[in-house]
Amino acid sequence: MKGKIAFLTALLLGSATLPGWAQDAAKDTPAPAMATQASYKIGPDDTLHVSVWKEPDLTATLPVRADGMISLPLLNDVQAAGLTPMQLAASLTEKLKRYLADPRVTVVVTAMNSQRVYVIGEVLHTGAMNLLPNMTVLQALATAGFTQFANTKGIYVLRSENGKQQKMPVNYKALIKGDATGQNIALKPGDTIVVP
């Protein structure tokens, strides 16, 4: 029993105190992959669930306003846009230390509404579409669908970068044949897909 307790203690303290055979096993064990959401930046229109452990009055589900702020009891307005959920949780934890002995804050993005692309023209579903991680033009077009009048050779993506607007052509027919895979552009927030 003492051996098991010593082994578990060594695991908790780190591999430096592990016996040689256990250190080798720890090296061979792959580290868990970082979730793609770890780098998600909160934006206006997102909905957040802010949970403060054992403080139900400070726990709330709230929207990120257009100015990038959220409003919480005790703290009033706090900047949320531009931060990852982990960064916001760390910021809130630090601010709540003035009022609570040991605040434990968790931030969960419950609705990702700030990252959108737009599809207009001869499609069945025009308007805003939530941008999924690594979404491409082909995936967005599959969601939007075409009308019978769509010119699938004349599709293009409009993207604004550094104050300039780019027009990137997408030949759908060539793309689905596999001839123009370079035109299957990875979309960015704010992109507009035009189907003439």
Which characteristics define this entry?
196 residues; alpha+beta; 5-stranded mixed β-sheet; 3-stranded antiparallel β-sheet; disordered N terminus
Structure description:
The protein is of the alpha+beta class and 196 residues long. 24% of the residues lie in helices and 27% in strands.
Brief summary of the model shown:
With 196 residues, the protein is an alpha+beta fold. Helix content is 24%, strand content 27%.
User: Helix-strand pattern, N to C?
Assistant: HHEEEEHEEEHEEHE
Number of strands: 10
SS summary, helix count: 5
Q: What Rg do the Cα atoms give?
A: 24 Å
Structural class: alpha+beta
Spans of at least 5 consecutive residues with low confidence: 1-37
Q: How large a portion of the residues is in β-strands, by DSSP E?
A: 25-35%
Termini distance?
73 Å
Portion of residues in helices? 10-25%
**Main beta-sheet strand count, sense and barrel state:** 5 strands, mixed
* Shape field: elongated
- Average pLDDT works out at 84
Strand order of the largest sheet: 7-6-10-8-9
Break the fold down into its secondary structure elements and pairings:
Elements: H1 2-13, H2 20-28, E1 47-52, E2 60-63, E3 69-72, E4 76-79, H3 85-96, E5 105-111, E6 116-121, E7 127-130, H4 137-144, E8 155-161, E9 164-170, H5 172-177, E10 192-195
Parallel strand pairs: 6-10
Antiparallel strand pairs: 1-2, 1-5, 3-4, 6-7, 8-9, 8-10
